[in-house]
């Protein structure tokens, strides 16, 4: 949650307040009908505890200047490049990555190293190296720390972009570094559906919940997630816990730790900032949006998204997926309507371009909507109730990674009609694309066995197979 310091607030907040007031008045009319399912699953509601600094998951790898916090993400538009990032602590050392495919010859890529200061914290040496011109659908091994203590990892490149390529995404949000976070990651890793890439919907380390935003907790989070993020790409979305703006201790530049530690290929999609960008991967087109950057009319994000959506060729990438941190449709009493002003700006485009699904975090619980839109509303006509809309996306809140702030257990009652399923439990989800017409979505709560699905839905593609796929009668 965390508060955005005034000194760092941008102009959109003023616009947002205005829209809020007006919508607040109209929405008071409310939706009175009962919606889908509110799960009665009994769960632990105590706040989660962060794993202590000497936990096994935070162990520093042995050896002088050994690379730590190794993580990868897609490095280009189509999936033929990978950005490899890691931290060394004793000295800068080499930014070289050695890599090879089975039976292929060893190659090397060079990158850059940088550090940053935050109040009285000084970061280690943060390396970012992009490996390019990889072959699709190929296993690559790679080594970092070549001058001192070498460490070897591997990853699979995605299949070539095309309409019928099956591909499996994992979904995690608001992870943090508690014992519950560790359970979520473990359950994802052991899920037999085997996610190949994580779509991460924001709020990574929660370091800002500590005194002076103790950036040591950014390092521990990097070491904790390495066991997955060094082997498969995590596609990053910026959440409010990435803002890290703290004017009270002289830190007035927003997103400093996040942008130094986590690079994304935003330039490849013509974006001017790392907070909004897009990638193509297998049969999907993933658009990442920024809840905490300006999105009003004429702003860079607005102009970019307008052009971006018109570029999507569904014959090439049938699945149009959007990630953002703050949800537009959320029926919990947490962060209620925080996403509303962005919805007002962008929702008509999502309907026009038939977005398949929108994944968000922020609310520490799970919720899946029906296909609904609220685009008829225009201040003067009062048509403010979301309606069933077969061209609209399904909205899924997956902010249930397990961070130290605890679960969002209080829900608005009655459950709105557009809400298909909601439950306040920690977990992760899988979006399993089968072909151009079908994808299988499942949500997995941490209390169950690895293969158990607490909620699921067969997605029918909005472009190729736009039949009614709602799960309610
Ligand atoms: C929750 O916290 C209370 C008070 O600290 C404790 O008595 C209780 O056992 C805890 N419940 C669970 C399920 O851990
Ligand atoms: C930073 O300052 C805080 C108190 O203001 C102190 O507790 C902490 O030890 C300091 N950390 C470093 C690395 O100097
Ligand atoms: C985290 O999970 C891993 C894998 O299940 C386990 O080996 C490790 O002991 C756990 N660590 C903590 C601190 O819970
Ligand atoms: C869209 O993609 C298909 C399949 O790759 C291709 O044949 C077609 O030319 C593309 N259309 C445009 C307008 O680029
Ligand atoms: C608002 O919507 C109504 C119909 O729902 C329409 O008649 C009116 O022209 C719209 N107003 C504006 C400013 O677009
Ligand atoms: C697409 O996948 C679904 C689900 O696996 C399957 O039922 C359907 O037949 C497939 N369609 C084609 C054209 O292969
Ligand atoms: Fe958040």
From TrEMBL:
<dbReference type="Pfam" id="PF00149">
    <property type="entry name" value="Metallophos"/>
</dbReference>
<dbReference type="Pfam" id="PF14008">
    <property type="entry name" value="Metallophos_C"/>
</dbReference>
<dbReference type="InterPro" id="IPR039331">
    <property type="entry name" value="PAPs-like"/>
</dbReference>
<dbReference type="Pfam" id="PF16656">
    <property type="entry name" value="Pur_ac_phosph_N"/>
</dbReference>
<dbReference type="InterPro" id="IPR029052">
    <property type="entry name" value="Metallo-depent_PP-like"/>
</dbReference>
<dbReference type="InterPro" id="IPR015914">
    <property type="entry name" value="PAPs_N"/>
</dbReference>
<dbReference type="InterPro" id="IPR025733">
    <property type="entry name" value="PAPs_C"/>
</dbReference>
<dbReference type="InterPro" id="IPR008963">
    <property type="entry name" value="Purple_acid_Pase-like_N"/>
</dbReference>
<keyword id="KW-0325">Glycoprotein</keyword>
<feature type="domain" description="Purple acid phosphatase C-terminal">
    <location>
        <begin position="392"/>
        <end position="451"/>
    </location>
</feature>
<dbReference type="InterPro" id="IPR041792">
    <property type="entry name" value="MPP_PAP"/>
</dbReference>
<dbReference type="GO" id="GO:0003993">
    <property type="term" value="F:acid phosphatase activity"/>
</dbReference>
<dbReference type="GO" id="GO:0046872">
    <property type="term" value="F:metal ion binding"/>
</dbReference>
<feature type="domain" description="Purple acid phosphatase N-terminal">
    <location>
        <begin position="67"/>
        <end position="157"/>
    </location>
</feature>
<keyword id="KW-0408">Iron</keyword>
<comment type="similarity">
    <text>Belongs to the metallophosphoesterase superfamily. Purple acid phosphatase family.</text>
</comment>
<keyword id="KW-0479">Metal-binding</keyword>
<dbReference type="InterPro" id="IPR004843">
    <property type="entry name" value="Calcineurin-like_PHP"/>
</dbReference>
<keyword id="KW-0732">Signal</keyword>
<feature type="domain" description="Calcineurin-like phosphoesterase">
    <location>
        <begin position="168"/>
        <end position="366"/>
    </location>
</feature>
<protein>
    <recommendedName>
        <fullName>Purple acid phosphatase</fullName>
        <ecNumber>3.1.3.2</ecNumber>
    </recommendedName>
</protein>
<keyword id="KW-0862">Zinc</keyword>
<keyword id="KW-0378">Hydrolase</keyword>
